[in-house]
Amino acid sequence: MIPTEDASARKREIEEKLKQEQETLAFIRENLEKSDQLTKGMVSILSSFESRLMQLENSIIPVHKQTENLQRLQENVDKTLSCMDHVISYYHVAKDTDKIIREGPTGRLDEYLACIAKIQKAVEYFQDNNPDSPELNLVKARFEKGKESLEAEFRGLLTRYSKPVPPILILDAIGVDEELEVQEEVTLEHLPEAVLQDIIIISGWLVEYGRNQDFMNVYFQIRSNQLDRSIKGLKEHFRKSSASSGILYSPAVQTKRKDTPTKKAPKRPVYIPGTIRKAQNLLKQYSQHGLDGKKGGANLTPLEGKDDVLDIEIDSYIHCISAFVKLAQSEYALLSEIIPEHHQKKTFDSLIQEALDNLMLEGDNIVSAARKAILRHDYSAVLTIFPILRHLKQTKPDFDTTLQGTAASTKNKLPTLITSMETTGAKALEEFADSIKNDPDKEYNMPKDGTVHELTSNVSVFKRVEHLYHPTPSLSPTHFLSVTALSYHNKDTTSPKKEKEPHFNDKILIMSVNNQYNVRFC
């Protein structure tokens, strides 16, 4: 059993703890009540805030929407004003650009093209939006005026700065001095670089916006005239030159010549007037003999002055052919920078026509003169054809390359001239050989001292001409003359029944002539 005192103490202890717990519970309840009151107050505040916020939102949203609409309207107004300014500017384009258009593009091409671009945009605007507007006609007229000014500037630049190429530069460019070991390339500059760039810009604009090809006609007309004048200037240079040699050298090349015994042989045949003149005199001898029946040697007259002129004319024509090829190549290089690619060949064809026709006409005149001389039995004129014909054949590959892409009629002009010269030369030599065969004095002019027969000597002269200017085997002078000389020389002048044995030297010479011919062309 538990003592009574212990039970009492235990009871009191329990009662005290209970009292404490009750006090704690009362404190908690009190705090809960306060917390509920605070919660109710906060909820009331939040509800009031929410209510007021709702009211504020309901008031702000319409204002926001209205402000947004106002901003949109403001943007639309700004855009409208900008468009109006842009449109109004089209109505002022004609007035704003009038001064620059009237003054022209000279010296301010970029600024001028910018004005033309403004006018073009105005034209496009009125065409799309107001085709019946009188302003459309005004800006169209301004645009056409600007285009005409550009075309005039194109023509003016070409006219002012296009000059004939000096003969000295042409002679350097065609490389007349082929004895030089190293040939320096000569560049023909037809236009200053700044002017060329302006012309290229104008050409590009006219092609893209001008929709007009008239400037191409202007280009080929001006450049064609300069090409023709360059060649004519070269001819005049030859006429005025007092040089005695057949090949004329420009001073620029002469300073570089090397007078050494080990020079290279020139590719182009050196023109030797003395050899040609001697052969011409021989031809004149038989020509006159065939006409009047007298011995040709007694009828020869000194024609040195006329022959000197002829030498220069032949040399001039030969160099003009080479000059034409070089100048045409240079013109095509210039044209390719200015003219659109699909119009280049046609424009080039038109550009070279005048100069080419003049050269071909001159060649036809040479052939015609030779034919007329042949009809008069004057066969000396045919020798003028040999150096020209040989040079034409040498030049033909470069000629064909340069004229590639041109019309067939243009490319066939040189072959036609070559054929004409070949036909005329062959006919002249055939008739000349016949005139020797029919010489009535052939049996009375045999050398009594046993020296080389005159015909054999003449054949050697013609062989020298043929060696220099042999254009084709069918035109070889010795082809006709060597056999003729041998047959005549073998005849005995004293006994018609017995043929005279040819002189040893004559046989050697004739065999040498024929062997050279066979070795070279068989």
UniProtKB/TrEMBL annotation:
GO biological process: exocytosis; protein transport
Domain (Exocyst complex subunit Exo70 C-terminal): residue spans on this chain: 318-460
Source superkingdom: Eukaryota
Gene3D superfamilies referenced in this protein's UniProt entry, alphabetically: Exocyst complex component Exo70
Keyword Coiled coil attributed: yes
Keyword field: Coiled coil, Exocytosis, Protein transport, Transport
Coiled coil: 4-38
InterPro entries recorded: Cullin_repeat-like_dom_sf, Exo70, Exo70_C
Purpose of the protein: Component of the exocyst complex involved in the docking of exocytic vesicles with fusion sites on the plasma membrane.
PANTHER family with a match to the protein in the record: EXOCYST COMPLEX COMPONENT 7, EXOCYST COMPLEX PROTEIN EXO70
Family in the record: Belongs to the EXO70 family.
Protein name: Exocyst complex component 7
Organism in which the protein naturally occurs: Coilia grayii
